[in-house]
Amino acid sequence: MRTVRARGESFRQAWANSEQGWKDAARDALTSRSSVVPGVGPADVAGAVGVSRERYDQMLDEAFGPSAEARAEAAGQQGQEG
Fold first, then answer.
1. Is residue 57 within 8 Å of residue 69, measured between CB atoms?
2. How far apart are CA 53 and CA 30, in angstroms?
3. 76: which DSSP letter?
4. Could you read off the pLDDT of 60-73 as tens digits, one per residue?
5. How far apart are CA 45 and CA 53, in angstroms?
6. For a FRET experiment, which of 1, 17, 51, 60 has its CA 20 to 30 Å from that of 69?
7. CB neighbours of 75 closer than 8 A, spacing ≥ 6?
8. Are 20 and 66 in contact (CB under 8 A)?
9. Cβ atoms of residues 25 and 19 within 8 Å
């Protein structure tokens, strides 16, 4: 029975890792200067949808969670506190 629980936990972790990977890839596509349309960057996209760059970043956070950089920074801060 323990093996089944361990496998279930392993699957949940793998699923969470995959989900975060897709979110990171989507964020990268929407923040890269060359991935959406060559030469078009995030500020251009934000302007096209009629929002400020700050609001655009908030929208990305709402859709995909914090960026990989923000997660790493938060993890580093937690490590320094403990």
1. no
2. 12
3. H
4. 999 999 998 999 99
5. 9
6. 51
7. none
8. no
9. no
Distance, in Å, from the CA atom of 13 to the CA atom of 61, rounded to the nearest integer, reads 22
- Give the whole-angstrom CA distance, residue 63 versus residue 33: 19
pTM for this entry: 0.70
Which helix (H) or strand (E) segment holds residue 25: the answer is helix 2-31
Which residue ranges make up each domain of the chain?
A: 2-81
Give pairs for 7-10: CB < 8 Å, separation 24+.
none
Q: Distance between CA atoms of 26 and 68, rounded to whole angstroms? A: 12
Burial of 45 (0-12, 13-18, 19+ CB in 10 A): middle
